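Hey team,

Sharing the FtsZ-interacting cell division protein ZipA run so nobody has to redo it. Sequence (52 residues) first:
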Amino acid sequence: MKVIFIICIIIVIIVLLLSVLTTNKAYQYKHTVDPIKKPEYDDEEKEHHPSN
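Structure output:
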């Protein structure tokens, strides 16, 4: 019974360490955002566009 309990504790510690390492690596990742581009209208759409 003690052997099973020790094995379970070791597994829990390994899973906890892997979770912490993965979370730290995810927070260190630098995210980038693409700039928003204005929609381009062709001549037909410009005629029907409300801002004109």
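The CA atoms of residues 25 and 31 lie 13 Å apart.

Ping me if you want the raw files.
A.
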